[in-house]
Design brief:
Strand order of the largest sheet: 3-2-5
Structural class: mainly alpha
Strand content: under 5%
Oligomer: single chain
CATH architecture of the largest domain: Orthogonal Bundle
Family: Belongs to the SecY/SEC61-alpha family.
Shape: globular
Keywords: Cell membrane, Membrane, Protein transport, Translocation, Transmembrane, Transmembrane helix, Transport
Radius of gyration: 26 Å
CATH class of the largest domain: Mainly Alpha
InterPro entries: SecY, SecY/SEC61-alpha, SecY_CS, SecY_dom_sf
Largest sheet: 3 strands, antiparallel
Number of strands: 5
Subcellular location: Cell membrane; Membrane
GO cellular component, one term: plasma membrane
Number of helices: 21
Length: 459
C-alpha cells in the first residue's frame, strides 16, 4: 500500500503527467454529460418508461446481444435516445472496415507502409468512413425507437414531434451523426493531449458507468430472497475478482520466441561469426492476439439465427437463439468465436513480414533458418497458442450465461462476468497503467542522466 501511495505521489508531482490525467478526466466528464442529453424530439422520461415496458415484455433477451453491447459501449446513451446514442461505435466499425480492406486494396496497403504520412491519410479515410457509417446507423436507430414503441398507444407522448415526419427524422439524423463525430473528436483529444488510447478509454468509461447500477440491482434482488443474500453477494464479488484475474492473465499471456542477432561487423570480417544479444531478445506472440474482435464479429452474426424464428415461430429450438442466455445461443456463439479467433489472428499477424524484418536486421530464431522457414515456424507456434487462447476466450464470452440464474440473478450484473465488456475494461486499464508507468520510468531515467551529467561536468 505504501508503494501504491508513493506512486500516486510521484504521478501528482510530475506536472506534465498530472495535466494529462486531469485533461483526460475533463474530457470524460464532458462525454458522460453529453450522453444524458436526449434528442430534441424525444421526451427522455417517457423513453425510460418505454424501455422498461419493453424489458418487461421480454425484449431484453434479444437486446442483450449486439444491441446490448452497443448500449454498454455508450454508457446507456444508446438505450436512452441520447444525442450520443451512436457513441464511438461508428468509428470502431470504420476502423475495422479500413483494416480489413487493407488486406485486399493495394492503395491502402501502400498507405500502411508510408510511415507517418500514410497513417495520417488512413486516419482521414477512417474519419470520412465514420460519417458514412453514421448515416447508415442513424436511420436504423431511429427506426428502432419509433417502430418498436409506436404500437403502444399509452406511450405516444414520448415524441414531441410526429415520429414519421421529416421534422423528426432529418434533425435527429444530423444530431446523431454530429454526436458520433464529437465523440470521435473527444477520443482523439485524449490521445493527443491526454494519457493516450482515447477511443478505448471512452468505451471503457461507458462500460464502467453501468457497473454500479447493475451491482445495486443485484444486491436488491439477493437481499429480497432472505438471509443468505449478503453471503451470496460476497461470494459473487469474490468470484468476479477471480474472473477479472483470469481476464488479466488472458490479456497479457505471451509465448516468447528467442531471437539472436549476428554482429554485422564480425560477419563481414569472416573471422568469427559470434552471436551477440540485441536490444530485443525475444518476440512476444500473444495467446489472444485477436483481442475482443472475435466476440464482436460473432455477436454481429448471431442475429441471423434469431431471424430464422420468423419463418417458424413454433420451433422451440430456433426460439432459443433469441435468448442470449440459452444453451443454443451460447454453443453456436462459442464456435463462432473460435473460428473468428483463427481468422482474425491470421490476417493481423504478418508472420512473413516478421521473418523478413528479422532477416534484414540480422536476427534469427535459434536452430531455424532465416526467411521462409522462420515464417513457417512462427506461423506454427501462433496456430498452437491460438487454439487454447480461442477456447479460453469463448469460455469468457459464454460465462455470463453460465452464471446467470443459478448464481447471479440479474441480467445486467451477469454480463460483467465475461464477454466483451470485461475484456475491454481489463485491456484498456492495463494499457493505461502501462503508459503511466512508462512515463514515470522515462522521467526517472532522464533525472538519473541529468544528475550523472551534473557530477561529471560540474553544471
Amino acid at each position: 500500500m505504501k508503494e501504491f501511495i508513493q506512486t500516486l505521489k510521484n504521478i501528482w508531482s510530475l506536472k506534465e503527467l498530472r495535466d494529462k490525467i486531469l485533461f483526460t478526466l475533463g474530457i470524460i466528464l464532458v462525454y458522460r454529460f453529453a450522453s444524458y442529453i436526449s434528442l430534441p424530439a424525444i421526451n427522455l422520461a417517457e423513453v425510460g418508461d418505454l424501455l422498461e415496458h419493453y424489458k418487461n415484455q421480454g425484449g431484453n433477451k434479444q437486446g442483450a446481444g449486439l444491441l446490448g453491447l452497443l448500449s454498454s459501449f455508450t454508457g446507456g446513451a444508446f438505450s436512452h435516445a441520447s444525442v450520443m446514442a451512436l457513441g464511438i461505435m461508428p468509428y470502431i466499425s470504420a476502423s475495422i472496415i479500413v483494416q480489413l480492406m487493407g488486406m485486399a486494396i493495394p492503395y491502402l496497403q501502400k498507405l500502411q507502409k508510408d510511415g507517418e504520412s500514410g497513417r495520417n491519410t488512413l486516419n482521414q479515410i477512417t474519419r470520412w468512413l465514420t460519417i458514412g457509417v453514421c448515416l447508415v446507423q442513424a436511420p436504423s436507430y431511429l427506426t428502432s425507437i419509433t417502430q418498436l414503441f409506436l404500437p403502444y398507444a399509452q406511450f405516444q407522448s414520448a415524441y414531441y414531434v410526429e415520429p414519421n415526419s421529416i421534422m423528426f427524422w432529418l434533425p435527429s439524423i444530423v444530431i446523431l451523426v454530429a454526436g458520433s463525430v464529437f465523440a470521435m473528436w473527444l477520443g482523439e483529444k485524449i490521445t493527443d493531449k491526454g494519457i493516450g488510447n482515447g477511443i478505448s478509454i471512452l468505451i471503457m468509461v461507458g462500460i464502467l458507468s453501468r457497473l454500479p447500477e447493475a451491482f445495486v440491482q443485484e444486491i436488491a434482488v439477493q437481499n429480497g430472497k432472505g438471509g443468505m443474500g449478503s453471503i451470496m453477494i460476497l461470494i459473487e464479488v469474490l468470484f468476479w475478482m477471480l474472473v477479472v484475474l483470469l481476464a488479466v492473465i488472458l490479456s497479457v499471456a505471451v509465448r516468447k520466441i528467442p531471437i539472436q542477432y549476428v554482429s554485422r561487423a564480425q560477419a563481414r570480417g569472416g573471422v568469427n561469426r559470434n552471436l551477440m544479444q540485441g536490444a530485443r531478445q525475444w518476440i512476444p506472440l500473444k495467446v489472444n492476439a485477436a483481442g475482443v474482435m472475435p466476440i464482436i464479429f460473432a455477436q454481429a452474426l448471431m442475429f441471423v439465427p434469431g431471424l430464422l424464428t420468423k419463418f417458424d415461430e413454433s420451433n422451440t429450438f430456433l426460439a432459443g437463439f433469441k435468448n442470449v442466455f440459452s444453451w443454443q445461443y451460447n454453443v453456436l456463439f462459442a464456435l463462432l468465436i473460435i473460428i473468428f479467433s483463427f481468422f482474425y489472428t491470421a490476417i493481423t499477424i504478418p508472420v512473413n513480414q516478421m521473418a523478413d524484418d528479422l532477416k534484414r536486421n540480422g536476427g534469427l530464431v535459434p536452430k531455424v533458418r532465416p526467411g521462409k522457414e522462420t515464417a513457417d515456424y512462427l506461423d506454427d507456434i501462433l496456430s498452437k497458442i491460438t487454439l487454447p487462447g480461442a477456447i479460453f476466450l469463448s469460455i469468457f464470452a459464454v460465462l455470463p450465461a453460465i452464471v446467470h440464474g443459478s448464481f447471479v440473478q440479474t441480467d445486467a450484473f451477469a454480463l460483467f462476468f465475461g464477454g466483451t465488456s470485461l475484456l475491454i475494461m481489463v485491456g484498456v486499464i492495463l494499457d493505461t497503467v502501462q503508459q503511466i508507468n512508462t512515463y514515470l520510468l522515462n522521467h526517472h531515467y532522464d533525472g538519473l542522466m541529468q544528475s550523472k551529467l551534473s557530477r561529471t561536468t560540474g553544471y
